[in-house]
Amino acid sequence: MRATELSELAAFAAVARHKSFRKAGEERGVTASAISHAVLNLEDRIAIRLLNRTTRSVSLTEAGELLFSHIAPAFGEMTAALDALNRYRDTPFGRVRINVPNSIGPFVIGRVIAPLLQRNPNLQLEINATDRLVDIVEEGFDAGIRFGERLTEGMIALRIKPRIRLVVVGSPAYFERRPKPQTPYELKRHLCIQNMFPSGARYAWEFEKDGRTVSFQPTGALSLDDHELMMQAALGGVGLAYIWEPRVERAVADGKLIQVLDDWCQPEEPLYLYYPSRRHMSAGFRAVIDAIRAE
After folding, report:
1. Same structural domain for residues 115 and 176?
2. Which of 45, 163, 186, 272 falls between 20 and 30 A from 17, CA-CA?
3. Are residues 274 and 149 in the same domain?
4. What is the per-residue pLDDT across 98-121, written as a single tens digit (0 to 9) for each?
5. Which residue range(s) make up the domain with 49?
6. Rounded to the nearest 10 degrees, what angle do helices 32-46 and 3-18 cross at?
7. Which residues form the HTH lysR-type domain (predicted)?
8. DSSP string spanning 79-145?
9. Is residue 44 domain-shared with residue 181, that is, in the same domain?
10. pLDDT tens digits for 28-47?
């Protein structure tokens, strides 16, 4: 159905409800003459009279009654559907899908997601955690969270505070067998768990202090691409892990892990929430952005 045909049917339905061209025009936001012209075009197109007109009144023909009985429910459902959409515009409601790196999932959940859901009980968040690079538009996400150097070109980006860092931890049992390293140069004498990208590539442990930078490439027997597994391996005394600080904060506070080289571990690139467009945001997505800005 063409737009002009739908507009003509809407004009006819308004006249049928009000039995008045003037009132139909007021409902549609146009003149009575425009309504009359639209209905005449509809009658000419289908070659059937739908309205009986006099200078004082308007009534439906039998054909008009039949047409109105069929289209009135449809227009009512469309109006109800548009009214229902107001919830998405006016109050945080519905589903928002966000892709986040698996390695920083606990940080995102604890700092952003949990407070957001407490303030907005009608909001539904779907969090997909993976360390692979995801095209959020192609895979149907509303937004993603990444470090600055991995942002997709052309996206709108909102910085998440605070910056987090990678730290080195080991279990008390491990440090009963080996001394705590005082500088990154001593790591070569330790059992170090290798950090692995989903592609299989290993990445170096980076350190900085007083303008000096040190890059250390572990050669340990165990390589992992999941930070939860790294933490469990460290807890089990397998070796030292280079891991996001929010993931091990509780274990360090409880004495289950010991953090070393603290003064060498500097904040990484900032995290960003990124998304493709500012146009016509739902209230739910605006609530996500507001929560991040409030951090």
Report:
1. no
2. 45
3. yes
4. 998 887 777 778 777 888 888 888
5. 3-88
6. 110
7. 4-61
8. HHHHHHHHHHHHS--EEEEEEE-GGGHHHHIIIIIHHHHHH-TTEEEEEEE-SS---TTTTT-SEEE
9. no
10. 899 999 999 999 999 999 89
